[in-house]
Structures are given as structure tokens and as C-alpha cells.
Automatic annotation (TrEMBL), chain A:
The chain crosses the membrane at residues 12-33, 59-88, 100-126, 138-157, 183-207, 240-262. Residues 63-262 form the ABC transmembrane type-1 domain. Belongs to the binding-protein-dependent transport system permease family. CysTW subfamily. The keyword Transmembrane applies. It comes from the Bacteria. CDD domains: TM_PBP2 (cd06261). It is a multi-pass membrane protein. It is found in: Cell membrane. It holds the Pfam family BPD_transp_1. This is ABC transporter permease subunit. Keywords: Cell membrane, Membrane, Transmembrane, Transmembrane helix, Transport.
Amino acid sequence: MQEKDISGFGRLVLTLGLAFLYVPILILIVYSFNSSKLVSVWAEFSTSWYRVLFNDSDVIAAFGLSVRIALLASLMSVVLGTLAGMALARFGRFRGKSLFAGMLTAPMVMPEVITGLSMLLLFIQLKDWFGFPAERGMLTIWIGHVTLCMAYVTVVIRSRLLEMDRSVEEAAMDLGAKPVKTFFLITLPIIAPAIASSFLLAFTLSIDDLVITAFLSGPGATTLPQLIFSRVRLGLNPEINALASITVLVVTVLVISANRLMARAERRRSRLAQLAA
Amino acid sequence: MNSRLLTQHPAANLATARGRARLAWRRWLPRGQALVTAMPYGWLLLFFLVPFLFVLGISFSEVEVASPPYRALLSRSEDVLNVALNLGNYRYLFGDALYLDAYLGSLQMASITTLICLLLGYPIAYTIARAPLTKRNTLLMLVMLPFWTSFLVRVYAWMGILDNEGLLNKLLLQLGLIDTPLQLMHTQLSVQIVMVYAYLPFMILPLFSNLAKLDGRLLEAAEDLGCRPWQAFLRVTLPLSRNGIVAGAMLVFIPAVGEFVIPELVGTPESLMIGKVLWMEFFDNNNWPMAGAVTIVMVALLIIPITYLHKREEKQLAQAEQR
């Protein structure tokens, strides 16, 4: 009786909560199929704004740049984040560890205007001293994104390393495997799903970043969020509705398939664990 | 010799196996460990910590019509090294109501956002954490999906709703609740709504992972001992979820203080938030030293909550490490 009452309340909470989260996005998608140039006035169904979007060379160029930066930044941040995760989860105490951990927490919560401005000033100073990086653009954006994303990667990898069963690693090393070999043969395969999901997380963070990018980009480099921002600043724009709808579609497909994969990996892992026990 | 003696007992065998494995990390790796640690460490020092020193430096500088548009702190004339620290930026900052109002306004906006996110997020996280295991994963994914969707897209979605000719006004007019469209867009209210919408997932996730770990037997025990469900909630669930509440609140509050995109897109031009002030000083006024001073004061405000959050998280991780 009471159980049912609670789940009724829970259902109400979930319905309202999910409605709050999804109704704005659904409205956005519906209006991307509006033929009118006025976003909020419904005329008739049309896919013309998608045609406009696909012929917009600025959008396509910005998208290409964003994808390239996101791929490179997530690759690098997964490498650095995994190393940092290993250092924090496996090496015990070492000198400067708390500073290290602190520098990994801060970029995640620190307002991005702060991170962006400070990195920009660094690059300007470096250019003054060494003449490098001569121009702000893809390289400087990439460095900024790696710094942001590696913090997130580290959190994911570190907690995975802490919860995994260490006896397998210990057995391998006891049988004479060097730590590096142990890492590649034992640890890495075990944490592979966590690495995949942190790659995905880093990719979405990078491709979505606006503020840090705005500080670190130069005249030649405009990423997709920068382009969207500059257009949206001028007001509602049905082409952006179309672009946003595609973003939502892509993210949804990616997240759902990643979720499926991860759930399957998790099931396989627990089955293996049961067999082993 | 010693080790052979020890290995005669199976339990001792296991213990030394572990010990030896641990030793292997230590013996072989000091150099390797240092290398592994040095790469991310060096990266963060160079690209995260050192830049703050530059911000600190520039905040004591003066604007100049030059490129870069500020005066160097150090200058040398003959054999004399001159250090010029200009405190003017800070004096100006603390003397001008514009900056103080922006700081206070941002802190207020961030606090209210945090509170509303907590009130909305807690029931959602609680319901998902209590849901049967088969549904839990799907529900969590549904809640987190908007978080993975572009931040800008989520802000933009509200622009179409809150616009003066937007959907909300149309709906209210149709229902006959209002006669003339309300000014919703570019108000404090619009900033508040969109802030809550954008930051809600940051509250739900830590709350969920905390509540999911809650031992259901404690609630059963409370009920057996005569607690009503709401009493059990207030006296068992709520205190036990403190870590989740703190983490969620910090994850919303800290970045919300410096939010720039939302006040820029849906906010009022008059009432500024500090993130926007920083942006304007830098990009519009080209006053880098002032932007530096604004940043340093913001960091000073946020360093306490950031450290608090960090210490708590580290403590929990240290416990996990020992297990």
C-alpha cells in the first residue's frame, strides 16, 4: 500500500522532471521544421532550413574544425588523464600529490572565463618570450581543451582503478611481469570501458566548449559553438534550430549506443567474475 | 632464505605475494612512476597553474595603448630593475558600485540557482535511486541526456520560449491569463530559469550516486522502529545524503558564479553578472589589467568552496583507496 503511494509520487516527480528537461528541446526541434523565418510563428511544415544549413559553408567549415579539435583533444586528454589516474590511484603518496589532485579538480568547477583568460595571458607571454605560439588558433584551443578534458578523464579513470580488483595486477607482477607490461596486459583491458566512456565525455566537452575557445581562438579559427553563439546573439534563427536539432539527434544516438555497449560490457564482466569465483 | 621460510604457510604466502607485488611497483617504478606522473603534472603546471601567476601579475599592471595593451611590471633602466605594482585596479574595483553589484548579483544568482536545483533535483535523484535496478539505468540516461547535449543548444531552446512573441507568452494569451505579452526575455527571471535548467544535471548526478549507495535496510529498520516514511526520510536519508548534497551544490554554485553565456544571451543589459563584466573588460574595453583584477577577486571568492569540495572528494577517495 505504502510502497505504491511512494512510487506514485515518484512517477509524478519523474514525469514533471523529464517534462522540464525535454519540452524545451522538443519545441526547438518542432520549430526547426517551420517554413517561416520567424521562429515563433508556425507557418507550415518544411525542411527548407535544413537545406539552408547544409549549404552554409561557414557552418560546415566550423563543424570540421570543431570535430578535428575534439578528436585530437580527447585523444590527448585520455592519455594524460589515464596517466594522472594511475598516478593518483596506484602510486600511493608522493610529494606534491595534493597540489596535483587540486589542479585536477579546479578546471572542472572553475568558471570557464577564469581558465580561458589565464591561458590566453600565458600564450601571449610565451609569444612575447619565445615567439611561439605565433598565432592563436587550433593549437591554442587544443591545449585549452586538453587541460579541461583531462580533469574529467582523470576522475573517471581514477575511480575505476580504485574499484577494480587489484589482485589480478598483483598476480601478474608476482609472476614476474614488469609494471608496464602489467598495465598494458591486465589493467588496460579491464579499464577499457571506462577509457571509452571518458573519451566520449572529453569529445562532447571539447566540441561543446564556447568560453575557453573564445579566449584562445584567433582570427582564422571559428569553432561551431562560436559560430552558433555569434548568430544566436542577434536573436532567434531557424537555421540554428535545424543545427541544434541535428546536434540533439547525434548526441542521443551516441549516448544510447554508448550506454548499451557499456551495459553489455558490465554484464560480461560480472558474468566472468561469477565464473571466476 | 627468509622468504622461503615464510612461504611455508599458505596465508603467509599470499601476504608475501601481495607484498612482493607492491614492492615491484616501488622498486622498478620510481623512475617510471616519476615519468608517468610528470607528464600530466607538467602539463597542468604549465597550462593551469602558471597562467594564474600571469593573471595575478597583469592585475597589478596598467593599461597602455600598445600590443599587448598593458605595461610590463618589470623594467630595467641601466642597472636598476624597476618593479611597478599598480594597485589602482583593485582600488577602482572596490570603489565602484558596478563591480560590487556584479559580484553580489552573481553570488545571489548562483545561490538561488543552487537552492532551486537542489529542491528540484533531490526528488528526481531520490526516485531514480529507489527505482528497480532494471529501470534505473534507463532513467538515469534519460536525465543525463540533456547534459550531454550542447550547453548552447539548451540555452537557445529557452530563447524561443521566453521571447516576447515566444511560446510561453502565446500560451498565456490564448488561455486568457494575460492581455498583453509579458516581458520575460532579458529579465532576471529569464536568467534564473535558464540557469536552473542548464545546471540541474550537475545536481542530479552526484545526488543520485550518493543515494544509490544508501543501505535500504536502514530505512526498513527505521520503519520497524516506528518511523513514518517522512520521518525516516528526514532522520535517515537526508543526513546520510549530506555528501551528495554538498557535492551537487558546489558543482552548481561554483561555475554558476562565473557564468557568462546565459546572462549574455537571456539577461538584462543593466544588471551584470561578474563573468560578463570580465568578458566586457577584456574583449570590449580592451582593459586587460582590470579583467585580471576582476578575475583575481573572483578566484579569491571561489577558492574556499573549491577547496572545501576538493577536500571532501579526496577524503572519500582515500577511503575507497584503503578498501
